[in-house]
Amino acid sequence: MITLVPYHQDERMPDASFPLPGPAPVPITRDLPDGDVWQRLAALFEIVTAEVADQVAGGTRPTVVSGDCLTAEAVLAGLQRAGVDASIIWFDAHGDIHTAASSTSGYISGMPLRQILGADPGLLADRLGLRPLPEERAVLVDARDLDPAEAEFLASSKVRRCPVDDVVLPDGPLLLHIDVDVIDENDLPGLKFPVAGGPSSDAVVASVRRIMATGRVAALDIACPWHPPAGDDTTVRARLLQDLLDG
């Protein structure tokens, strides 16, 4: 069962952005309240958190597809709410490890992994009941486009960093998060924030399948921060999502 959260931050994305295999899932949507972006996201993500927790309680491994890495906070909160103490494997070309103070752009989708580790809890984590994850239980895979503040934090943190072909897994259950922009920009067109010098689609899919084969993945979270499709984008994206979901 796929849970679709068709948003990039608090903006609804077109349905065509998510060429998922099989019957179209019913997307999680709602009329978002007035307020700042964090209040709006908390209202949306509370539904996601509850859905993930319900699926775990019912014996289902949640699979969540969205347009944004921030959704991973809701997925992890849902696992915790259901009693699953998961570590996180974070595939991403970027660090996503800014705080509100360290970000020079203010782009909030560059902050979710740092919030998972306990930064700025009042923005989103406290609203979702998300408990901070110890740094040593986070693995950052193929992050190659880091701002200076991110590189400085990672240099002294216990977050482990790996390439896609040699991912070191922490013990216990796992939340496997995949931002598709971890793939080289030449292999996946139309990304909002493309980064060169990355792995191929095939290499990422193979790595994901190795992790899934351990049987320890408690939830799979796929973020698709790409522009609306153009040309043959839909075909390429549909094949990628099929391959990732088949893992």
By secondary-structure content and strand pairing, the structural class works out as: alpha/beta
Spatial strand arrangement across the major sheet? 1-4-9-8-5-6-7
Portion in helices? 25-40%
Order of helices and strands: EEEHEHEHHEHEEHEH
Oligomer: single chain
Broad shape: globular
In the CATH scheme, the class would be Alpha Beta
Number of helical regions: 7
Mean pLDDT figure: 96
Could you please say which CATH topology applies here? Arginase, Chain A
Give the helices and strands, then pairings.
Elements: E1 2-5, E2 7-8, E3 11-12, H1 37-57, E4 63-66, H2 71-81, E5 87-91, H3 112-116, H4 125-128, E6 138-141, H5 148-156, E7 160-162, E8 174-179, H6 201-212, E9 217-223, H7 233-245
Helix pairs in contact: 1-2
Question: Can you give a write-up of this model?
Answer:
It contains seven helices and nine strands, in the order βββαβαβααβαββαβα. Helix 5 (148-156) links the parallel strand 6 and strand 7 (160-162). It has one domain: Ureohydrolase domain (Arginase, Chain A, 3-Layer(aba) Sandwich), CATH 3.40.800.10. Helices cover 30% and strands 15% of the residues. The protein starts with a strand and ends with a helix. The chain is globular, with a radius of gyration of 16 Å. The chain has 247 residues and is an alpha/beta fold. The strands form two sheets. The chain has a seven-stranded parallel β-sheet, with helices on both faces. The chain has a two-stranded antiparallel sheet with strand order 2-3.
